[in-house]
Structures are given as structure tokens and as C-alpha cells.
Amino acid sequence: MIHESSPWKSALRRDADLIVRWATRPPGERRGFLLERKLFLAAYSLRKLSDDHKLSSATLSAPVQVRLAPPLKPHFSGLMHGLARHYDLNARQTRTLTWRRILNMMIHSAAFAEVVDDEGRCTGVLVTSDREAGRGLVEVDLGDFVALMMQAAEDYPSVVRQIWDPEGERWTTWAGHDDTDPASGR
Predict the structure, then answer these.
(1) 139 near 92, Cβ under 8 Å?
(2) In what order do the strands lie in the sheet with 63-69?
(3) Domain range summary for the chain, segments of one domain joined by +
């Protein structure tokens, strides 16, 4: 459990700045490794902060626009090299996913690659997980991901409340910035 979140959030802020700088460097093995590592660690940190109620519930449940490349075949081996052999990269469609779902894909990724523009800058990532591989390959905009990191770095919930869910027969925890009742919206 994360007790004090400010060091984690400071690291997110520093890493967001580093990702922005390195994304503009020439493509290469070092840049690819650094971006991949920082993005994976950020995904894990964001999910862990949320799981420990150190982020507002709305932060990772927020919708984000992504582009989804559909699979070319229904089944995949564990070797996901050559993404164009597995996904139709020319038929990407806009979809809306939550940040939590994207973070889970990154943490459990079966495929991960940079999206590079004509000048060689990294503008996004292609990712899917072992569980999501049959649904498609997701393109996440790097600017959107960096914005999430910066938002989370400043997100200090002032209210944490547990709510009984009678349908699910379990407690859920809500974290936010005011005393609004999350169940009623008031």
C-alpha cells in the first residue's frame, strides 16, 4: 500500500517531462527502451495510486479517445512480433476506453510499439494485452498519456468514502475532491 503519495506523484511529473523530451529525440534502441520503461512504470504507478485511493475515482474512470486496429485473425501465439501480421493497421477506428483499461493493457502488455511521425518523433504507442489481443491493438496518443500523468501528479482527493453496493454485495470506495455523494450525484 502507498501511504504517502507525494513522492510517487513527483516521480510521475518528472517522468512526464522526460517522456516529452525523449519523444522528440531520434528513434533508436535507447529511446525505445527509455520510453517503454517510463510508460510501463507510470502505468503501474497510476493504477497503484488509484487502488490505494490516492487519486480521485474519476481520474482513471475517465474516457479517452484511442484508435483500435482490428485483429486479422481470431487467435494469436504468444509471439506478437510483426504487428502488421496480426492487426489491420490501415483500418484503425476511433473508440473510447477508460484510462484504467488502458493501464491494465500496458501493465499486462503482449505487444508494445512506438507510433512515430514523419520526423521520427514518438507521438503515441500501440499496445494490447494477453486478454485484449483478440479485440485489437490500441493506439494511445502520447500527449494524452502525459496529460494523465500530470493530472494525477496534482490529484490529492480530499474525501474518501466507502459505499455499499447491494447488487454486487460488496463495498466500493470512492475518492474525490468535495463532499458530493457519489451514489446520488448530490
Answers:
(1) yes
(2) 93-98, 63-69, 137-141, 122-129, 109-116
(3) 6-76+83-176
pTM: 0.89
pLDDT tens column, 117-142: 999 999 999 999 988 988 999 999 99
Distances (CA, A) of 42 to 32, 99, 163, 178: 15, 12, 28, 26
The answer to whether the CB of 120 falls within 8 A of the CB of 92 is no
**DSSP, residue by residue, the chain:** --S--HHHHHHHHHHHHHHHHHHTSPPSHHHHHHHHHHHHHHHHHHHHHHHTT-S-HHHHHSEEEEEEEPBSSS---S---SHHHHB-GGG-EEEEEEHHHHHHHHHTEEEEEEEE-TTS-EEEEEEEETTTTTT-EEEEEHHHHHHHHHHHHT---SEEEEEEETTTTEEEEEEESS---TTTT-
Extract the C-alpha cell encoding 139: 493506439
- List beta partners, residue 175: 160
